[in-house]
Amino acid sequence: MRVCIIGTGYVGLVTGGTLAELGNNVICVDNNEEKVAMLNRDEIPIYEPGLKEIVRSAREAGRIKFITSIRDGVRASDIIFIAVSTPPKPDGSADLSMVAAVAKEVAENLNGYKVVVDKSTVPVKTGEKVAETIARYSQGDGEFDVVSNPEFLREGSAIYDTFHPDRIVIGTSSRRAADMLIELYKPLDAPVIVTDINSAEIIKHAANSFLATKISFANALVHICEASGANVEEVTKGVGLDNRVGSRFLNAGVGYGGSCFPKDVSAFIAIADELGYDFKLLKEVENINEFQSEYFFNKIKETLWILEDKTIAILGLAFKPNTDDMRNAPAEKIITRLLAEGAKIKAFDPKSMEKAKETLPEIEYCDNPYQAAEGADALVIITEWNEFKEMDLGRIKDLLNQPIILDGRNIYDPAKMEELGFIYKSVGR
Ligand code: UDX
Asked: Which of 174, 237, 331, 380 has its CA 20 to 30 A from that of 358?
């Protein structure tokens, strides 16, 4: 099929790359000329395992190209994905100005029947507005349908997630449009839900908000477990093995971050508010999440007492492993608090240090965990990269000024750490 993707951010690039890999002819459009030039040289502006390889092989096979003109992309395609960003405004609601601008330009360039698919995460009723906008600016000429087709990929496993989705959600009132998308996704062999456009839009916000709720629930249990001497890992395991609950997304830690959960939870609160419902449950999910990084900072402070002139080694900066993404990373909040108390930070992250330098220029960046640990008064784990699980802890102990480890992701066994002679503190255990 002939597909145009407008916006080459995370979602746009991964969707474009995977649809090209499935044999479609894909045109990716972005108004950033520099980015388009980079992509045409096979330079991928984000770190995502496997993405570079599939984009390169699709380009070599002539199945994907990158251009700056929406007009050319729309005219050469049957299905047009809108995958531009919808950043949060100060009140938490989504800024839809980019979606609106794209809809207008798509409308002005319709030449024959087009399916316009919203892949960006947008508030309910956006599809209706997009359809109205296209109808208005195409002056009744264009034949089109609008579909909401939310994306559920996770950073770090985006390619796998796109090829193996739990479900594909197609929201539209048009049978013709639904059939074209069912055909497009046929090779994926995943369950498909065809529903109305408003329900599809809500599915995305509800799914992310529910997952964030699971994490905040586990993080709330941390405090009950610490106060009672229970172990949060045992508790979440015991709860999660009930099939009705499920064991995933119940890992306690320093809170959720990234470009989706914080944004989508606050957007859903704003959407509910606009619809006349006070979503207090989600407000508490946010509060628990905010508190979790503060709680962990306090744990560091209680352990080291006066932080002024203490050196702290931080392992892990990205909001989760296997990504270089620093957006809403708990590490940033915790480090900012430590710096404000006069601590000196030596940090290491396998992928995100370049990005971290933009917001945390005042800390020392190290080449590996051992360099970070050398001469530090404590070592703090914030992101659970695999390589930290496999570190030579004996060597770490020798390098530290004091054998103190504060583990914000519960990656080590407390009994083993004690045996190795560490003062070891983790979360909810
Ligand atoms: C998320 C959704 O999973 C995905 O479906 C959606 O399309 C985009 O948002 P992503 O932000 O890439 O994906 O990361 P995810 O793996 O979901 O983790 C989000 C945050 O939650 C991370 O900060 C992670 O550390 C945290 N988390 C996750 C926990 O603290 N505990 C858990 O059990 C799971």
From this structure: 380
